[in-house]
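Methods — Computational structure assignment.
A single polypeptide chain was analysed. Its primary sequence is given first, followed by the predicted tertiary structure written as structure tokens.
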Amino acid sequence: MSGQEARVGELAAYAAVAGAVFGLNLLPAFGPPTWAILVLFSLHHDFWLPALVVVGALFAAAGRLVLALATRRLGDHLPARIRSNLAEAGELVTRRGRRTVALLALFLLSPLPSAQLFEAAGLTTLRLLPLTGAFVAGRLVSYGIYVGGAGALSSTDTGKVLLSSLTSPWGVVLQVAMIAGLVVLARVDWGRLRHP
């Protein structure tokens, strides 16, 4: 194989990672964690790990941003009362700088499934780009840890690791709880809580 063919093959491999990660992060719930997909790729191809982590973080963020924007568009079709509640929730979070910083820290450091966090952000009036930037920063750290530790997993069955992330009772309960949280977010009269 010539040097140029090798470079094209390498770019194709990174493009496959980007496409898989982007598509996975469009899922509104019950998708496997992106870190597990990146670990799987790292174990089956000779990627330069820092590049794999950067591609993973950027395309995960792009997928989540598109999910939030799509959720925002769907939110336009919700009843007026729910739209008002969601707008008030967004105002409640962004009204004080500390709350905004706390929310950014949640996106930066949270082990929680990010799909529902982005859906909630999409349903409110929150600015999505700062949240997406915090998400990228956090994922650069967490994906770096997972992918860097992937060598320890090389002796285990990666399929079992992925399957357990999808079928774990705690994982399913957490996903259902996060979806229920979205419903509660839309139902609470945040305006009344802000202005008693």
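Note: The mean pLDDT is 81.
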